[in-house]
Amino acid sequence: MQCTKLLQFTIFSLSCLAAFAQGRLAPSSAGAKASPMKPPNAKIEIVVDDFHGHKVADPYRWLENAGSPETQKFVAEQNAYTQQVLDAVPGKDTLRTRIEQLQTIGRVEAPKVGGKYYFYARREGQQNQPVIYVREGVQGKDRALIDVNALAPDGTIALDWWHPSHDGRYVAYGTSPNGSEISTLQVIETATGKLLPEKIWRTRAANVAWLPDDSGFYYTKYPRPGDVPAGQEMYNRHVFFHKLGEAGNADGLKDPLIFGEGLNPQHWPNVHISNDGKWLLVNVNEGWTKSELFLKNLAGPAAKFVPVTSGKNFLYEGTILDGHLYLVTNEDAPRYHIFKVDCANPERANWKEIVPQSDAVIDTSGEGGSLIIGRRLFVKYIKDAASQLAIFDLNGKHVADVAMPTLGSIFSGVGGNWESHEGFFGFFSYAMPPTVYQVSLDGKVTGWARVESGIDPAKYQVEQVWFKSKDGTRVPMFVVSKKGLVKDGKTPTLLSGYGGFNVGRMPFFDRNAMLLLLEHGGIYADVQLRGGNEFGEEWHRSGMLEHKQNVFDDFIAAAEYLVAQKYTDKEHLAIQGGSNGGLLMGAALTQRPDLFRAVVCQVPLLDMLRYQNFQIAKLWIPEYGSAEDPKQFDFIYAYSPYQHVKKGTQYPAILFMTADSDTRVDPMHAKKMTALLQAQAANGPDRPILLRVDTKAGHGIGKPVGKLVEDNVDLWSFVFWQLGVKP
Fold first, then answer.
1. Over the stretch 183-196, which tens digit does the pLDDT of each residue have?
2. Is 666 helix (H, G, I), strand (E, B) or coil?
3. pLDDT tens-digit profile of 161-211?
4. SS3 of 515, please?
5. I want to staple 249 with a disulfide (CB 3.0 to 4.6 A). Which of 75, 254, 412, 478 is the partner?
6. Among residues 28, 387, 496, 579, which one is catalytic?
7. What is the predicted pLDDT for the residue at 513?
8. Residue 33 above 80 pLDDT?
9. Phi, psi (rounded to 5 degrees) for 323
10. Cα(first)–Cα(last) distance of the chain, in Å?
């Protein structure tokens, strides 16, 4: 690829209820409608790239340099302009009061079990970060064990992950500042709350496998800057072993490399150890459609890792108990099935299918689809985008189906271990806040922990509708509203989706979208696009690489369905998405700018010709492809939003939201797209193009409550203004 700078600029090629309880206005009639405010001017400095003979202009390449004074000035001016516009919207203080109230609704997760100890995360009231509590016995007294809230007054040090040892004596956990997710591993003793000397840096999203005797653990770690060529420190995740208390090695720099030498830098290993400490299993993810399993006998002399899988383009997860490997895979079964094999003879010919594929999809998120609890298999399923849970014995005999409280989702995995006498699962739905349930080994369910919300779920209704996409594929969508909704074609509606990376959109609890909007008589629509996991691997693959346009077609068809069925109209329809969902927003607004009144585009990918050059984005090439590949350039260029802004087009009002410490999706995407749209869109002041860049924040993981309040006040001020909702 070649690029040259040009001095001149050329065109860049590129009735529900009669009224709400709080009132309903015509779109944009509230606040800022006659505002003389104009966005800051951004300089144009065109760079032309040559992609395999295709010349593509980029007028805002300079905004990719986050550290330059010019870019920092641009961000400061854009933030000031955005606040000036949004501060002029009436009712912002009223929104803030209600959002602060909603944010006090806490969160609780299913416990992890270690020996006699039960560990679980809970956030309450105005706490910025969750606290890890521990109790002795299933109904014991809670004691705070890990509380990172005291580490930073503004709550910007986050608890990223935590793993108790099998007997619960220790807990390894990771923290990071400013939403960076670049964790530092520490170890705490459960009985005393004493911190051990360990402080191991670069343990992002670490996987930890404790030895049965607690003397050490296997874990994943990234190289330090300077240890590898610049930029490669974001990749090269490898497996190491750390011995507790080793003199002079609290920082882990002397820890031996166990797995990863010669591994593709973009591959992602995780590690698991058997209950007897004899077998070590490494799962290597090679993108979102392929993984490999490697097994090592730790008791054998000079043992090496043995491949369990054979390079096929399928996904595999595994866990070991008593010398047997239990595998969950979509090999020749797009909705997954489960096999069992002796670790001493793990060849494919020896695998025995014990749980066959069914009409539901085994949910491999969280703990990998199945977890051995009390020597039984707890298997999570997805059926029509809602959770199910079944229990089998270790030979695959069905024991029980676990009753779910309502249509909703299991979140934060299933808690328990192979010695447990019960399991646990966290559950929520659109109007049901997080609740943890205890489940016996024969499937009986009782409540274990919940958060108080003051919400009456009976006031709301959830409808699952199906519509046809552009190519005739049937796609489902949840439509959430107050009971008694009358479809008059003018109800303010927020449509959201994701569509990628084998990640599903299932019913979930959101203190703002599901409540703030619904309380004002609005509709929340959540669409299950291709690219997700809702219907198995075929559904995922039909929304990736050269099929990515299917995702955008599905989303556009969802919006058209809402209009055609008189839930809303184009002037009362807003859309929202983040990350890969931000790419979805960019594609939707450039392909159908006439269909939406407002867009909230959060931490987005937008320049898909260059995305892979920033942060950890090379990890996503298996899902998106790369414009550096001549065979993939055409289909990426065909939808890349930044290359498809058309001068003189009226676009929806747009709020881009990003953060300066995002180590996943670089903020340059939102900056460049904002500058381009502000220069070329035929929008008046009633349809502004706004950019909001948060400081001391990242992709959204571990964001403190104070920042969440500020985010949501601006987001909902924007949406309510554009859709004509009076707070």
1. 999 999 999 999 99
2. coil
3. 999 999 999 999 999 999 999 999 999 999 999 999 999 999 999 999 999
4. coil
5. 254
6. 579
7. 59
8. no
9. 80, 5
10. 51
Is 35 among the residues known to form the active site? no
Please provide the DSSP assignment of 294-329 as one string.
EEEETTSTT---EESS-S-SS-EEEEEETTEEEEEE
d(CA 190, CA 359): 43
Q: Which of 176, 387, 699, 717 is catalytic?
A: 699
Give CA separation, 367 vs 25, 317, 323, 395, in Å.
Answer: 47, 9, 20, 20
**Max CA-CA distance within the chain?**
79
Is 520 a known active-site residue?
A: no
**Is residue 670 predicted with pLDDT exceeding 80?**
yes
Distance CA(540)–CA(500), nearest Å, equals 7
Residues in the chain: 727
Written as six digits, the tokens of 370 are 């199945």
The pair of three-digit structure tokens given for residue 665, joined into one six-digit string = 């999706």
Tokens 């591994």 belong to residue: 263
Q: What's 228's DSSP letter?
A: B
Residue 490 has pLDDT above 80, yes or no: yes
For residue 10, count CB atoms less than 10 angstroms from its CB and return exposed for 0-12, middle for 13-18, buried for 19 or more. Answer: exposed
Q: Report the pLDDT averaged over residues 214-227.
A: 97
Query: DSSP character for 491?
Result: -
Of 580, 576, 645, nearest in space to 611 by CA: 580
Rounded CA gap, 113 and 127, in Å? 24
Query: What pairs with residue 466 in β-bridges?
Result: 476
The span from the CA of 375 to the CA of 397, in Å, is 13
Q: How far apart (Å, rounded) are the C-alpha atoms in residues 22 and 29?
A: 15
pTM over 0.85: yes
Task: Tokens for 531, please give them.
Answer: 């690219």
